[in-house]
Specification:
Elements (H helix, E strand, L loop, with lengths): L1 E2 L15 E2 L35 H9 L2
Antiparallel strand pairs: 1-2
Length: 66
């Protein structure tokens, strides 16, 4: 996944920030000191989606491998 936190049209494209994001299994060996953000599992697991509302469903399906 890619995360683009800078959506404001006031920020010039060359100054916008983006991050590469991956999902991994719980037994992932983080030998590269990557920053971790854990989404709690369960019926009401929550994550943040910034983007078009049309992509919420497909984004969640890709995240959960449905």
């Amino acid at each position: 996944m890619s995360v683009f936190p800078d959506h404001s049209p006031k920020i010039p494209p060359k100054d916008k920030i983006s991050y590469a994001v991956i999902t991994v299994d719980s037994d992932f060996d983080n030998t590269y000191d990557l920053q971790e953000y854990i989404i709690t599992e369960g019926l009401y697991a929550v994550t943040v989606h910034l983007g078009s509302s049309e992509e919420i469903g497909p984004t969640w399906n890709r995240l959960t491998n449905d």
